[in-house]
Amino acid sequence: MVSGMTYYAPLVSALVTLVLTFILMTGKTGVMVRDIPNERSLHSTPVPRVGGIALMAGVLSGWALLTQFLAWWIVLPVTGLFVLSLLDDMRSLSARTRLIVHFIAALAAVSGAGVPLLWLIPVLLFIVWMTNVYNFMDGSDGLAGGMALFGFGSYGVGAWLGGSEMFALLNFSVAAAALGFLFFNFHPARVFMGDAGSIPLGFLAAVFGVSGWQAGYWPFWFPLLVFSPFVADATVTLLKRAWRGERLSEAHRSHYYQRLVQMGWGHRNTALTEYALMLLAGMSALWGIGLAHMAQGYLLLAWAVAYLALMGWIDKCWREYQSTEKKAANV
After folding, report:
1. No. of helices (H) and no. of strands (E), the chain
2. Is residue 134 within 8 Å of 198, Cβ to Cβ?
3. To 5 degrees, how large is the angle CA 273–CA 202–CA 225?
4. Which of 140, 159, 176, 193 allows an S-S link to 168, with CB 3.0 to 4.6 Å?
5. Do you find a cis peptide bond into 188, omega within 30 degrees of 0?
């Protein structure tokens, strides 16, 4: 059981993130570390890319009240990923270097969590993939912060219902830090989280998802459904780009959320629509925990059909948009 000051962990995370984000984005650090727009960007002016520093500081500050419950295989890898990603934000490290460190962090998490040998490789790849998925999807105002709010919030509720207040508070602290960050990141964004925020968040989404599954708080599919708004978009987009023979490490604007923004939805409407999807995915995942195995299968099938339908509709709208733009250019 947890008691006393530990219940204030999420509040501490939110306040530290909120205050530190303001300090960093308005100070010299915000000037030195900025996201400079290019032809692949969805924004047109330089924006401070220091939100990840404040967000992770907020998370760790909240966790400081829960130190007796923290495991080294969570704290050390996520801290290492934060440091590496911060360097990447400032100096642009090679994709090979980043991927090697991602695998090392995933190996540490897998070994510490005591994942069964049969699941070792799938879980390792899942952690590395989720670590990068979050980075891929961090390209529109309020999107990555919103996914952290709803995703880790759903984890927290699932853990609480499973009887682990401690694990719930660890997750609620991440969600609260994301809420503090969103105060400045929702459209029009005044700060971005950068890789220093998105990479650790992706890692935690995977590791906490695996931890909850191992502890019996939820089924193995639960993390995938909770974070499905990111997983589905990133995975399908990657497969389509690979099919077209494109360089997968090259920046692009072909994610479904990016196309919605480009087609006129804008950052605000795209974020709000994604929030509704995130909330629905999280709530249905929590509801699905108590269903029979057959019913859980039907739930996942329903979501797969829904995502295929949504993606098919966006693809259709995108083709029409491109056709209209081409005709307008030829006039």
Report:
1. 14, 2
2. yes
3. 55
4. 159
5. yes
Q: Where are the domains of the chain?
A: 4-330
Q: What is the dihedral of CA 33, 36, 40, 43, to 10 degrees?
A: 100
Q: If you search the block for the tokens 């000037």, which residue do you land on?
A: 31
- Look up the pTM and report it: 0.95
Beta bridge partners of 98: none
Please state, in angstroms and rounded to a whole number, the distance separating the CA atoms of residues 287 and 280.
10
Q: Which residues pair with 34 in a beta bridge?
A: 48
136: tokens are 């891929």
Contact 241, 304 (CB under 8 A): no
